């Protein structure tokens, strides 16, 4: 088979000539040659395989920039890249599914704001055994729990985490369940703006930022906002579940199957953040969850999660009589493990508010 005109090639590849012109402009699929007189594009049959791959990836919804990366990889690496992309799509779809279910309930009048749940809570923050100062900040109130871990070096992260918590503090009031995510989203944007102001007014603060993980209650619904590598867990029916996803380089490698959790624990870039609040725009995760009486929630900075094994965290949470005892035991575990970082824990028990 000789060279194919753009029309014949489009038909064979099941793409439109318009799409082929776009892929040519973007460098995704160049024609084998272009007639200098007429400008007609001609393709070789050997290019069909790449054209079909582009078409399949577009059907998956993959952005063109990422398709360009996949097309340049060896087959095994390309397969891993597609798997990583699809894992992210499924995670995003699950989050949207939860939000859609919540909105449907609200619109149909089946919201459960009439359910009266309360929380008993405690908070503890410690500098640890190595760091000279504490750059963590936290808040625990009747409606709001939050942990922020500032960064920037030489203690400069402390003002950043404090500014983030201060931006969320006004949320500790009665907010309708249908407004939880809107309220959290607005507060996070205000927190990011506060960090931007800090760096603008004080050039020495350039490069500072903070993680944020927070829970906001209304009825039996809770909104979760998360960015960075602080974490949230829930202990339910004796099982401990992590309900946040780390925004770190090593976690992205785990998601893509390029690193095991065991390898990540000793990776030299295990603390490298891909997303955080730093005054440069917000890309926080927002989710809705349903709380149940008997749930025990934990929010913590990475000073706990990176040094205390998960089974020990679960045991401390499950065996502590109340949130005060739980936070004391968790911080002690981190310090007993060397306390290489600041450690902050907020623990809350969900109770029947009518009790």
TrEMBL record:
Residues 3-73 form the HTH merR-type domain. Keywords: DNA-binding. Signal peptide: none annotated. Residues 120-350 form the PPM-type phosphatase domain. Pfam families: MerR_1 (PF13411), PP2C_2 (PF13672). InterPro entries: DNA-bd_dom_put_sf, MerR-type_HTH_dom, MerR_fam, PPM-type-like_dom_sf, PPM-type_phosphatase-like_dom. This is MerR family transcriptional regulator.
